[in-house]
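Structural prep section.
Before we set up the soaks we want a predicted structure of the protein with iron/sulfur cluster in place, mainly to decide which crystallisation condition to try first. Input record follows.
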Amino acid sequence: MKKVLMITCDYWEEEKPKTNLGVATLVHYISDKTDDIEFDYISIDANNKSKHLSNLNIASMEEYNVVCFGIYVWCVDEMLDITYELNQLSERPIIVFGGHEVTHEFIDRIGESKTDVDHFIIGFAEEALYAVLTEEETKRVYDKVEIPSLVAGVYSNEIVLLDGVETVSVETKRGCPMGCSYCSYDVGKTRKISCYTCESVLNEFDFLKDKVKKINIIDPIFWMGNYKRVIEYIYNNGFGNQFTFQSEFLSISGKLDEELLEKLSSLNVVLEFGLQSISEIVHKNVGRMFMFRVVEEVLDKLDYYGIQYEFSIIRGLPGETLESYKNTIDYAIGTKASKIFCYPLTLLNNTKLIQQKIDFEISSFCENGLEYVDSTYSYTKSDYLSMKLYEEIIAEYRK
Ligand SMILES: C[S@@+](CC[C@H](N)C(=O)[O-])C[C@H]1O[C@@H](n2cnc3c(N)ncnc32)[C@H](O)[C@@H]1O
Ligand code: SF4
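Run finished without errors. Recording the tokens verbatim:
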């Protein structure tokens, strides 16, 4: 029996599971294929890193054959520190790095410390990690890993426990064809939509039905692939839970026929739209398709049927001006959106936008390991502060 330890650093939230969904999915996937691997799991609370890290018992990790790290932008240094300490053990485990931050550039960047790591997995990790854990000879870097066939079941198989949990996240598909330049979704490799088997998703819903209040569907865009069957099932089987769906205007617009609208209106659903901006220049700059007419048509239909929706807006995309940002917020307030969130533009590695820093005259500052944009060719640092101030008028929409 091989013993494997998974370590991630996550922003813990009250009433949500403390197990990372990505890790749970990997454990489920691999445990389904083999009985010869036993998994343990540590999640470090990103809100409370130093306390959690000081409680880590590195010496006890000697008992594992393999230790896998989820490398995300907010925890790179901490994970490298743990790896360094693991390497000082007399019988050190095999070390595997995966997670969004792992790219060829990242592997180059970590320089000397990369020799501490035995395997890097770039992209979806299911197939690659299974190979690392089961094959005798494996590659050092796994790249462009195929999307595996996906089977839901992290809750019904008790990989994620639900004690005291009211809100859970479920994936019904992966992939997004859109390619917005700022997005953390690793475009090029994940544009193809790949659905979980419908039966396994519906089985998971049945398990969750009487146990949790809210089910967040975290697909980057829900309205593709298997969405119709999922909605039909919730509709036909009397689910009282609240469901939230990540939504984007162009991809939903052609699908909102009378039948779907009627079903949605009788369910407890919230459509979470990324509005981002109402400036066409901004959308053009970030390679995101946008038609204001479509936004209005979609919202008219949702309003007519009384379907709840929320917006997220990004502060400071290239091409935004103080005026266009205010217009976006004013527009959002004028709709029936029940919540409006504004997020500062984060410059993420592994995105197109980070390579366009010079073209768009982007300047940024660092906070808690994240890089935030605070001026571009179209607005100054002072405009940025005014944008932030203007957001006060949506305070009541954030509750
Ligand atoms: C997965 S998207 C939402 C739904 C849909 N995919 C869309 O784009 O409209 C989640 C939200 O996170 C925010 N977001 C994504 N990348 C961001 C970045 N680099 N900086 C700030 N916010 C970002 C955006 O507001 C985005 O709408
Ligand atoms: S922002 Fe949304 S629509 Fe754009 S690439 Fe990311 S997930 Fe897809």
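Observations: The radius of gyration is 22 Å.
Flagged for discussion at group meeting.
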